Amino acid sequence: MSIHAVSQHLGIRWETVKNIDKEYLHSTLPGLEPEKLNNLIHIGVDEVARAKRHDYMTVVYDLVSGHLIWVEHGRKAAILISFFKQLSTATRDGIKAVSMDMGQPYQSAVRQMLPNADIVFDRFHVMQNYCLLIKKERAKAFRNGSNQEKKMIKGTLFLLLKNAHKLDDRQSDKLADLLESNKTLCIVYMLKEQLQAIGMNRVTSRW
Q: Do residue 49 and residue 98 come from a single domain?
C-alpha cells in the first residue's frame, strides 16, 4: 500500500505517514555496515526506483538469511564496486554467486571485484526477455505468412505466452494447430516450456 493510499485511508497528511514509516524502518533495520559483514555466500543485487523511476537505489541482500545488507543511491557499476570495496578480503572471497537482472553495470562490477563468483540471472528476468523473443517471432511469422497462416496466427499471442496448464481445451487445441503448422513457433514455444519447467529459481551464467 502506497504512502498516499495510507494517508487517504486514515485521513492524515502524507508527510505524517512518511515520517512514521521512516521511524519504523530506522527502529527495525540493522545498521548497514559492510565492513562488519562476514560469511556471505550468495547475495542478490537489485535496483529500486524512487520518485516514479527518476531516482534509483542499489540494494544488496544476503540471499541465505534474507536480510537487506546495503543500500545506496544510484545504479552504476561504481556504486556496487564501492560496496565490494568495503567488504573484507575474506568476505569478498567467500561470495560464490551474485543474483541480479541483466543490467550491464552490475555485471561489470561483479566481474571486476568478484572474478571467481558466478553471475546469476534471476528467472523472472530470463522469462521476461524470452517472452519478448516469442512476440518478435510471432510478429515475423504473421508478417511473412500467407492469408491462411495469418488467420491462424491472429489472436494467438496469449496462447504462446500463457502457461500450458492454464489453457482450456479449446485454447489448447488452437495452440496445437498453430504449433503444428509453424515449425519456428513450435521450437520457440517448446523452449519456453522447458525454461518454465526449470526447478531452480535462477539461471546461471559464467560469461
A: yes
60 in Cβ contact with 43 (< 8 Å): yes
User: How many other C-beta atoms are found inside a 10 Å radius of the C-beta of residue 11?
Assistant: 6
- Residue corresponding to grid cell 558466478: 118
CB 58 within 8 A of CB 47: yes
Q: With a cut of 50, say whether residue 205 has pLDDT above it.
A: no
The structure's pTM equals 0.63
Within this chain, do residues 105 and 35 fall inside the same structural domain, yes or no?
Answer: yes
pLDDT tens-digit readout, 13-59: 888 988 887 777 666 655 578 998 999 999 999 988 766 666 788 99
Cβ–Cβ under 8 Å, residues 163 and 134: no
Structural domains counted in the chain: 3
Phi, psi angle pair for 206, to nearest 5°: -120, 45
Q: What number of other Cβ atoms are within 10 A of residue 128's Cβ? A: 12
* C-alpha 10: how far from chain center: 33
